[in-house]
Amino acid sequence: MGGRKENVGGDGDSPPIGRRTRDEKEARELLERVQRSEEAIEQIEFRRMLGGEHDPSNGIVSVNAGAGGTEAQDWVEMLLRMYLRWAEKKKFETKIIDILTVKKRV
User: What's the rounded Cα separation, in Å, for the pair 68 and 58?
Assistant: First the structure.
């Protein structure tokens, strides 16, 4: 031991325990900052997408089953209900302009 400094907790190749702990803390802080930055960027991009001159205008949504038979028709009805409920929660006014229903065979 005489005059020789030892790296307590280190194996010669890795940094001392205190240094590792500080590096891990800095890495966690850096990761948190990156995540907050990503969230802020997503919010800015979303606002930019909805910042056009026509964005306050009305929208039209068209849903159709195509040639999928009764199962596709059932799915479209569920989808329509989901869209209407979503719009209601967001306080949007909705109006069904045209709807074509098919009699289901049992």
Answer: 30
CA 79/CA 102 separation, integer angstroms: 16
**pLDDT computed for residue 52 by the predictor:** 79
Q: What is the pLDDT of residue 13?
A: 65
Provide the token pair at 15: 């940094």
Using left for φ > 0, alpha for ψ between -120 and 50, and beta otherwise, residue 23 falls in: alpha
Give the Å distances, CA to CA, from 23 to 28, 58, 84. Answer: 9, 53, 51
Residue type, 51: G
Closest to 18 in 3D by CA, of 27, 26, 9 = 9
> Helices marked H in 1-106 — which ranges?
17-49, 69-89
> Which token pair is 58?
């009305």
- Reading the block at residue 87, the tokens are 């719009």
Q: Which stretches of the chain score pLDDT less than 50?
A: 1-2, 6-10
Q: Is the dihedral of CA 64, 74, 98, 88 positive or negative?
A: negative
